[in-house]
Amino acid sequence: MSLRLNISGVRKSYNGKPVLNACSFSFDRNGVYVLTGSNGSGKSTLLRICALIESPDNGEVIYFSGNNIISKDILLRRRITLVLPGIGLFNTTVFNNAAYGLKIRGGKNKETERKVNNALKFVGLIHKKNHNALTLSSGEIQRLGIARAMAIEPEMLFLDEPTASIDNENTEIVENIILNMKKEGRSKTIIATHDMLQAGRLGDCMLLMDEGKIIKV
Ligand SMILES: Nc1ncnc2c1ncn2[C@@H]1O[C@H](COP(=O)(O)OP(=O)(O)OP(=O)(O)O)[C@@H](O)[C@H]1O
Ligand SMILES: [Mg+2]
Q1: Would you call 11 exposed, middle or buried from its count of C-beta atoms within 10 A (0-12, 13-18, 19+)?
Q2: pLDDT per residue over 108-158, tens digit each?
Protein backbone atom coordinates (compact mmCIF):
# COMPACT_ATOMS: atom_id res chain seq x y z
CA MET A 1 0.00 0.00 0.00
CA SER A 2 1.53 3.31 -0.97
CA LEU A 3 2.62 5.73 1.71
CA ARG A 4 0.75 9.01 1.99
CA LEU A 5 1.53 12.06 4.08
CA ASN A 6 -0.91 14.55 5.47
CA ILE A 7 0.18 17.62 7.39
CA SER A 8 -2.37 19.88 8.98
CA GLY A 9 -2.16 23.07 10.96
CA VAL A 10 1.62 22.76 11.30
CA ARG A 11 3.24 25.66 13.15
CA LYS A 12 6.90 26.18 13.84
CA SER A 13 8.69 29.19 15.29
CA TYR A 14 12.36 29.81 15.95
CA ASN A 15 13.23 32.32 18.66
CA GLY A 16 9.66 33.57 18.67
CA LYS A 17 9.58 34.14 14.90
CA PRO A 18 6.92 32.08 13.12
CA VAL A 19 8.21 30.17 10.10
CA LEU A 20 5.35 27.75 9.47
CA ASN A 21 1.94 29.15 10.22
CA ALA A 22 -0.92 26.64 10.15
CA CYS A 23 0.60 24.92 7.14
CA SER A 24 -1.48 22.09 5.67
CA PHE A 25 -1.15 19.78 2.69
CA SER A 26 -1.78 16.20 1.57
CA PHE A 27 0.91 14.36 -0.36
CA ASP A 28 -1.38 11.70 -1.77
CA ARG A 29 -0.19 10.88 -5.24
CA ASN A 30 3.06 9.31 -6.38
CA GLY A 31 5.27 11.62 -8.41
CA VAL A 32 7.28 14.78 -7.94
CA TYR A 33 6.12 17.70 -5.80
CA VAL A 34 8.23 20.84 -6.15
CA LEU A 35 8.30 23.39 -3.37
CA THR A 36 9.50 26.89 -4.20
CA GLY A 37 9.52 30.12 -2.23
CA SER A 38 11.87 32.90 -1.27
CA ASN A 39 14.92 32.47 0.97
CA GLY A 40 13.85 31.92 4.54
CA SER A 41 10.26 31.11 3.60
CA GLY A 42 10.46 27.81 5.48
CA LYS A 43 11.05 25.19 2.76
CA SER A 44 13.87 23.39 4.56
CA THR A 45 12.02 23.60 7.86
CA LEU A 46 8.99 22.01 6.26
CA LEU A 47 11.06 19.21 4.71
CA ARG A 48 12.71 18.45 8.07
CA ILE A 49 9.32 18.29 9.76
CA CYS A 50 7.82 16.10 7.01
CA ALA A 51 10.86 13.80 7.17
CA LEU A 52 10.40 13.51 10.95
CA ILE A 53 13.79 15.05 11.71
CA GLU A 54 12.10 17.84 13.68
CA SER A 55 8.73 18.11 15.41
CA PRO A 56 6.26 20.92 14.82
CA ASP A 57 5.28 23.18 17.73
CA ASN A 58 1.66 22.52 16.84
CA GLY A 59 -0.35 20.64 14.28
CA GLU A 60 -0.15 17.15 12.88
CA VAL A 61 2.15 15.21 10.60
CA ILE A 62 0.43 11.94 9.76
CA TYR A 63 1.61 9.13 7.53
CA PHE A 64 -0.94 6.75 6.09
CA SER A 65 -0.80 3.42 4.36
CA GLY A 66 -4.15 3.24 2.61
CA ASN A 67 -6.48 4.56 5.27
CA ASN A 68 -4.42 3.31 8.19
CA ILE A 69 -2.37 5.73 10.25
CA ILE A 70 1.20 4.54 10.65
CA SER A 71 3.03 5.14 13.90
CA LYS A 72 6.18 7.21 13.64
CA ASP A 73 8.52 4.43 14.59
CA ILE A 74 11.74 3.12 13.16
CA LEU A 75 9.85 1.08 10.55
CA LEU A 76 8.29 4.22 9.11
CA ARG A 77 11.59 6.11 9.32
CA ARG A 78 13.14 3.39 7.17
CA ARG A 79 10.62 4.14 4.43
CA ILE A 80 11.38 7.87 4.14
CA THR A 81 14.55 9.89 3.76
CA LEU A 82 15.82 13.44 3.42
CA VAL A 83 18.83 14.45 1.31
CA LEU A 84 20.42 17.74 2.32
CA PRO A 85 22.49 19.91 -0.04
CA GLY A 86 25.81 19.26 1.67
CA ILE A 87 25.68 15.57 2.51
CA GLY A 88 28.05 14.26 5.16
CA LEU A 89 30.83 12.21 3.61
CA PHE A 90 32.90 9.56 5.32
CA ASN A 91 36.58 9.11 4.56
CA THR A 92 36.04 5.83 2.74
CA THR A 93 34.95 4.57 -0.67
CA VAL A 94 32.03 5.87 -2.70
CA PHE A 95 30.46 2.41 -2.28
CA ASN A 96 30.68 2.50 1.53
CA ASN A 97 29.26 6.01 1.58
CA ALA A 98 26.33 4.97 -0.58
CA ALA A 99 25.82 1.85 1.57
CA TYR A 100 25.64 3.80 4.81
CA GLY A 101 21.84 4.09 4.98
CA LEU A 102 21.41 0.37 4.36
CA LYS A 103 24.14 -0.67 6.79
CA ILE A 104 22.59 1.28 9.67
CA ARG A 105 19.32 -0.38 8.77
CA GLY A 106 20.99 -3.76 9.18
CA GLY A 107 20.75 -4.86 5.55
CA LYS A 108 22.16 -8.21 4.50
CA ASN A 109 25.49 -8.03 2.67
CA LYS A 110 24.50 -9.47 -0.72
CA GLU A 111 21.29 -7.49 -0.82
CA THR A 112 23.10 -4.32 0.26
CA GLU A 113 25.67 -4.79 -2.48
CA ARG A 114 23.00 -5.25 -5.15
CA LYS A 115 21.00 -2.21 -4.05
CA VAL A 116 24.05 0.03 -3.70
CA ASN A 117 25.41 -1.00 -7.09
CA ASN A 118 22.03 -0.28 -8.67
CA ALA A 119 21.84 3.13 -7.01
CA LEU A 120 25.38 4.01 -8.10
CA LYS A 121 24.54 2.94 -11.67
CA PHE A 122 21.40 5.05 -11.55
CA VAL A 123 23.35 8.21 -10.65
CA GLY A 124 26.27 7.43 -12.98
CA LEU A 125 28.88 6.80 -10.30
CA ILE A 126 29.40 3.05 -10.59
CA HIS A 127 32.82 3.57 -12.23
CA LYS A 128 33.91 5.42 -9.08
CA LYS A 129 32.62 2.94 -6.53
CA ASN A 130 36.09 2.15 -5.19
CA HIS A 131 37.33 5.73 -5.18
CA ASN A 132 37.56 7.64 -1.93
CA ALA A 133 34.43 9.80 -1.65
CA LEU A 134 36.50 12.80 -0.56
CA THR A 135 37.96 12.97 -4.10
CA LEU A 136 34.56 13.60 -5.75
CA SER A 137 33.50 16.89 -7.31
CA SER A 138 30.57 18.78 -5.78
CA GLY A 139 28.24 17.54 -8.52
CA GLU A 140 29.30 13.96 -7.90
CA ILE A 141 28.87 14.43 -4.14
CA GLN A 142 25.32 15.57 -4.73
CA ARG A 143 24.70 12.48 -6.87
CA LEU A 144 26.24 10.29 -4.18
CA GLY A 145 23.77 11.78 -1.68
CA ILE A 146 20.92 10.76 -3.96
CA ALA A 147 22.43 7.28 -4.45
CA ARG A 148 22.69 6.83 -0.68
CA ALA A 149 19.02 7.73 -0.37
CA MET A 150 17.95 5.61 -3.35
CA ALA A 151 19.75 2.54 -2.04
CA ILE A 152 17.22 2.31 0.77
CA GLU A 153 14.42 2.48 -1.82
CA PRO A 154 12.43 5.12 0.07
CA GLU A 155 8.74 5.49 -0.60
CA MET A 156 8.96 9.17 0.30
CA LEU A 157 12.11 11.03 -0.74
CA PHE A 158 12.76 14.62 0.31
CA LEU A 159 15.43 16.53 -1.64
CA ASP A 160 16.47 19.91 -0.31
CA GLU A 161 18.02 22.02 -3.10
CA PRO A 162 19.41 19.01 -4.98
CA THR A 163 21.24 21.15 -7.53
CA ALA A 164 22.39 24.04 -5.34
CA SER A 165 25.97 25.03 -6.23
CA ILE A 166 26.53 22.50 -9.00
CA ASP A 167 27.24 23.27 -12.65
CA ASN A 168 24.85 22.96 -15.59
CA GLU A 169 26.11 19.55 -16.64
CA ASN A 170 25.60 18.03 -13.19
CA THR A 171 22.29 19.83 -12.79
CA GLU A 172 21.12 18.10 -15.95
CA ILE A 173 22.36 14.74 -14.67
CA VAL A 174 20.56 15.21 -11.33
CA GLU A 175 17.38 16.31 -13.09
CA ASN A 176 17.53 13.23 -15.30
CA ILE A 177 17.97 11.04 -12.22
CA ILE A 178 14.82 12.59 -10.75
CA LEU A 179 12.92 12.20 -14.04
CA ASN A 180 13.98 8.55 -14.27
CA MET A 181 12.80 7.93 -10.71
CA LYS A 182 9.53 9.53 -11.69
CA LYS A 183 9.17 7.09 -14.62
CA GLU A 184 9.46 4.21 -12.18
CA GLY A 185 6.51 5.81 -10.40
CA ARG A 186 6.97 3.94 -7.15
CA SER A 187 7.62 6.82 -4.80
CA LYS A 188 6.78 10.36 -3.85
CA THR A 189 9.56 12.89 -4.21
CA ILE A 190 9.33 16.31 -2.62
CA ILE A 191 11.93 18.78 -3.82
CA ALA A 192 12.73 22.24 -2.49
CA THR A 193 14.29 24.45 -5.15
CA HIS A 194 14.75 28.11 -6.00
CA ASP A 195 14.93 27.41 -9.67
CA MET A 196 11.53 28.03 -11.23
CA LEU A 197 12.58 26.59 -14.58
CA GLN A 198 13.74 23.44 -12.85
CA ALA A 199 10.45 23.31 -10.97
CA GLY A 200 8.66 23.35 -14.33
CA ARG A 201 10.87 20.61 -15.74
CA LEU A 202 10.47 18.25 -12.80
CA GLY A 203 7.22 18.87 -11.02
CA ASP A 204 3.91 17.08 -11.30
CA CYS A 205 2.64 19.38 -8.60
CA MET A 206 3.89 22.92 -7.91
CA LEU A 207 3.81 24.27 -4.41
CA LEU A 208 4.78 27.68 -3.11
CA MET A 209 5.70 28.54 0.47
CA ASP A 210 4.14 31.85 1.31
CA GLU A 211 3.68 33.36 4.75
CA GLY A 212 4.29 30.03 6.40
CA LYS A 213 1.74 28.14 4.33
CA ILE A 214 1.81 25.91 1.27
CA ILE A 215 -0.09 27.23 -1.69
CA LYS A 216 -0.75 24.97 -4.67
CA VAL A 217 0.02 26.86 -7.88
N1 LIG B 1 17.34 25.57 13.56
C2 LIG B 1 17.01 26.85 13.42
N3 LIG B 1 17.21 27.75 14.40
C4 LIG B 1 16.85 29.03 14.27
N5 LIG B 1 16.27 29.54 13.18
C6 LIG B 1 16.04 28.71 12.16
C7 LIG B 1 16.39 27.32 12.22
N8 LIG B 1 16.05 26.74 11.05
C9 LIG B 1 15.50 27.70 10.30
N10 LIG B 1 15.50 28.89 10.96
C11 LIG B 1 14.95 30.15 10.45
O12 LIG B 1 13.68 29.87 9.90
C13 LIG B 1 13.46 30.59 8.70
C14 LIG B 1 13.14 29.62 7.58
O15 LIG B 1 14.33 28.89 7.26
P16 LIG B 1 14.37 27.73 6.18
O17 LIG B 1 15.76 27.27 6.16
O18 LIG B 1 13.30 26.75 6.48
O19 LIG B 1 13.97 28.52 4.87
P20 LIG B 1 14.19 28.11 3.34
O21 LIG B 1 12.91 28.47 2.63
O22 LIG B 1 14.66 26.72 3.24
O23 LIG B 1 15.33 29.12 2.90
P24 LIG B 1 16.45 28.95 1.76
O25 LIG B 1 15.75 29.24 0.47
O26 LIG B 1 17.44 30.02 2.09
O27 LIG B 1 17.02 27.57 1.83
C28 LIG B 1 14.71 31.42 8.48
O29 LIG B 1 14.47 32.71 8.97
C30 LIG B 1 15.75 30.70 9.29
O31 LIG B 1 16.72 31.61 9.75
MG1 LIG C 1 16.40 25.86 2.51
Answers
A1: middle
A2: 788 899 999 999 999 999 999 999 999 999 899 999 999 999 999 899 999
45 lines ligand 1 (CB under 6 A): yes
Whose CA is closest to 8, among 30, 24, 21, 19? Answer: 24
Contact (CB, 8 A) for 195 and 165: no
Mutate to test the pocket of ligand 1, among 21, 23, 43 (most ligand atoms within 8 A of CB): 43
The answer, yes or no, to whether any atom of ligand 1 lies below 6 A from the CB of 40, is: yes
What residues does each domain of the chain span?
A: 29-54+74-216
The CB density around residue 159, as the number of other CB atoms within 10 Å, is 28
CA 130-131-135 angle, 5° bins: 165
Residue 192 CA: nearest ligand 1 atom is: 22
Q: Kind of pairing, strands 156-160 and 58-65?
A: unpaired
**Maximum C-alpha span of the chain:** 49
| Confidence class for position 63, pLDDT limits 50, 70, 90 | very high
Instruction: Please state which of the four CATH numbers 3.40.50.300, 1.25.40.10, 2.40.30.10, 3.40.630.30 is assigned to the domain occupying 29-54+74-216.
Output: 3.40.50.300
With 0-12 / 13-18 / 19 or more C-beta atoms within 10 angstroms meaning exposed / middle / buried, residue 42 is buried
